[in-house]
Design brief:
- The chain has 77 residues and is mainly alpha-helical.
- 48% of the residues lie in helices and 9% in strands.
- It is built from 4 helices and 3 strands.
- The protein is globular, with a radius of gyration of 13 Å.
- The relative contact order is 0.19.
């Protein structure tokens, strides 16, 4: 995957209106994984196609749906 086609976590944060801290949390609970992590620097990069997914996470949060409930449902299969 070419880094030039991806958004840095800062760019993705601005476009998605999610904080970098929130994006790290979503990664930690396996709700939203970066498209690529640079093995040398550890910098995280996201694909623009992931923006709609993070918007859904925001909607679930606004509706007070617990995010760990979503991850449990996603990974039960």
């Amino acid at each position: 995957m070419y880094k030039s086609n991806l958004l840095s976590i800062g760019e993705f944060s601005q476009l998605s209106r999610m904080t970098i801290k929130a994006l790290h949390y979503y990664e930690k609970i396996k709700l939203l994984q970066p498209a690529w992590i640079d093995p040398d620097s550890g910098y995280r990069y996201y694909d623009a196609s992931q923006l709609h997914y993070v918007q859904m996470i925001g909607l679930f949060t606004d509706l007070d749906i617990r995010l760990n409930y979503l991850t449990d449902e996603l990974y039960e299969e």
